[in-house]
Amino acid sequence: MFDVLNFNSKKLFINIHTHQQIHDAKIEIVNAYLNSSNDFNLCSYGIHPWYINEKTISDDLQKLELITTEKRCIAIGECGLDKLSSVDFKLQEKIFIEHINIANKVKKPIIVHCVKSFNELLNHLRLTENKMPVIIHGFNNNQNIAELISNYGFYFSFGKALLGYESNASKVIKTISGKRFFLESDDADISIKYIYKKAAEILNLDEDIIKEQIKLNTQTIFGNKLIAL
Ligand SMILES: [Zn+2]
To answer: Which of 110, 115, 148, 183 is 20 to 30 A removed from 77 (C-alpha atoms)?
Structure first.
């Protein structure tokens, strides 16, 4: 059992969303899709809006509901809405709502993928009376959207977009509360340590302060669900 209260290392890296376990962070939440035969220490399960298959979706949802009860599964997702996906948008909405309902049932935070669909996303989270923390992963949108998300009390996770100084992510990270952000490598072939380094540079802060803040944010939303197996 991994006791979150024993986080005392300032060297602690937390990768809130990745697609591979490379052990360069103490905590890596690996996106496992529906693959429950994985060997990840910590993972999230979800149906990505790109990969919704109408033919298998009812079985897939049943499986999701089952595997999200695993202890090592500490979040639901990535799931969400993507207007650039070829999957029918109404179907995406339906499946996103299912994810919200499952997350509220198993009481785990939601890791969200959202492309050009923030109004719909926020509406669904409101209408379903979602009570779980929401992390918008790979955030690289403008200030207006960032304010909207902050007003809802949701969280941001920034990744490789921080490598571009002129990116939306690099601008937005300077304006939001430290209590609201996480860092991730996502599917990029890059160490989370490098993302921390860039975040520290952009924010003009010591990297240890960022580690401390993300550690606190992690405790806030995951609490005692953080179990290293
Ligand atoms: Zn991802």
So the answer is: 148
DSSP codes of every residue in 137-196? TT----HHHHHHHHHTT-EEEE-GGGGSTTSHHHHHTTTS-GGGEEE--BTSSS-HHHHH
Element (H, E) at 66: helix 57-67
Q: Count the alpha carbons within 13 Å of 82 in the hemisphere toward its beta carbon.
A: 18
Pairwise CA distance, residues 74 & 133, whole Å: 12
Cα–ligand 1 centroid distance for 208 (angstroms): 25
Domains of the chain: 24-225 (3.20.20.140)
Which residue is listed with tokens 């996303």?
121
* Residue segments in the chain with a per-residue pLDDT below the cut of 50: 1-7, 227-229
With residue 98 as reference, give the H or E element that holds it.
helix 89-106
pTM for the whole structure: 0.93
Task: Tell me how far the alpha carbon of residue 17 lies from the centroid of ligand 1, in angstroms.
Answer: 6
pLDDT tens, position by position, 120-129: 999 999 999 9
Compute, in degrees rounded to 10, the torsion defined by CA atoms 8, 11, 14, 18.
Answer: -150
For position 165, what pLDDT does the model report? 82
Contact present, 182 and 135 (Cβ < 8 Å): yes
Distance (angstroms) between ligand 1 centre and the Cα of 41 equals: 17
What is the 46 CA–ligand 1 centroid distance (Å)? 11
Q: State in Å: Cα 180 to ligand 1 middle.
A: 19
Cis? peptide before 201, omega within 30° of 0:
no
